[in-house]
Amino acid sequence: MNAVEIIKKKRDGKSLSPDEINFLISGLTKKEIPDYQITAFLMANFINGMNKKETAALTEAMLYSGKVVDLSGIPGTKIDKHSTGGVGDKTSLMIAPIVAAAGVNVPMISGRGLGHTGGTLDKLESIPGFTTQLTLKRYIAMIKKHGLALIGQTKEIAPADKKIYSLRDVTGTVESIPMITASIMSKKLAEGADGFVFDVKTGSGAFMSKLSDAKTLAESLVNTGKRFKKKSIAFITDMNQPLGNYIGNWFEVYESILVLKGEYVYGLSELVEILSGAMIMLGGKVKTIEEGFDIAREKIKSGEAFDKFKEITAEQKGDITFLDKPDKYPKSKFTEDVTVGKGGYLKSVNSYEIGMASLQCGAGRLRAEDKIDPKAGIIFYPNIGDRVKKNEVIAKIFTDRKNEIENVKERILNALKFSKEKTKSPKLIKAIVK
């Protein structure tokens, strides 16, 4: 085999064999095939697509480019959850401790935010002292002891994915469902889980803005999981408005604390219970998702879920005094209200713009090397369908960047559309793929 012939074959719209795909991925990992040839391969895939067998082969090649964690020595089922990302999407911070408190092991290897969506690692690291960079040995020991670990991708896990993603990011080949599937699944399969719950976002604040694309991705993820004999279920969920009210790293930890302590937050509380329930079901604790979210609610009500969050925070060197007394967290230099003019019923929200406004406050990064301000962010109050009065405060801005305040206010207001007639709230769960 040689790279040129394989690239030409894919360029001409033909299907590649598992051996051909493995040849390229192995060559990339061993630095025997140059980046420019891998880039040509990625573009050929992007243009001509990949079938189910090719997607599975690419996933497998990327999976075995590094270590695959063996958690078979730990009793019980191991279930993880993955979200495709959205604005205010902080569900992992609550789901992981809820499910672990319910007796299901949660091996969670998460990522960082880039662009308008936040990353679980950045949110966790906004807790002073919290470290997400742990060795695989420590990761396994934590799951065995606590039923939970919240860490970042290590060098040993799917190294081919890390290289390929960086190439996709700069060559216009990110929006490929087969390659997104292989990227997600190679990391998830490597972490040692027995099953997965996928939260595939769709709408203005999601990478898959079209429902049809979200369904295709959800089916691809579930089918790939099944090919590797992993229990899998996907929920296609709404991202046409921020999830919850708080956007920004510490702000999202703060809202997670509120939910774990039993406070109800529209949309967020429901989704946390549903996804937790699905994980508890896949973990074999109950037979239905409905029974699973009854357990999830009970773990919140009893305080066990919040105690588990504190337990894992302490284990990963985080200062739990900020969880018990979140008001002591450092404050931004500037706080500004955002008020509407005429008002009316909130008809739509461009969630992407809200996410970018938060980023302008300092809560995110445009480039991997950008520094995040963990205390920066936005509180966004209304939900679609709510009646907003004239001059009502609909958001608060928190930032150290005084020169960005007016730009952020303008961006938020331009992201909103109002109607004289009451608008129906968007459906939270669009579809379930099993």
Please, could you describe this protein's structure?
This protein has 434 residues and is of the alpha/beta class. It has three domains: 3-49, Up-down Bundle (Transferase, Pyrimidine Nucleoside Phosphorylase, Chain A, domain 3), CATH 1.20.970.10; 79-324, 3-Layer(aba) Sandwich (Pyrimidine Nucleoside Phosphorylase, Chain A, domain 2); 331-419, Pyrimidine nucleoside phosphorylase-like, C-terminal domain (Aldehyde Oxidoreductase, domain 3). Helices cover 45% and strands 15% of the residues. The protein contains 17 helices and 13 strands. It has helices at residues 3-11, 18-29, 35-48, 52-63, 91-101, 120-124, 136-146, 159-169, 177-190, 211-227, 249-260, 268-282, 289-301, 304-315, 321-324, 351-363, 405-414, and strands at 79-83, 106-110, 148-152, 195-202, 231-238, 246-247, 334-339, 344-349, 377-380, 387-388, 393-399, 416-419, 429-433. The strands form four sheets. The protein has a four-stranded mixed beta sheet with strand order 1-4-5-13, sandwiched between helices. A four-stranded antiparallel beta sheet has the order 6-9-11-7, with helices on both faces. It has a three-stranded antiparallel beta sheet with strand order 10-8-12. α5 packs parallel to α11 (249-260) and α9 (177-190) crosses α10. The radius of gyration is 22 Å and the shape is globular.
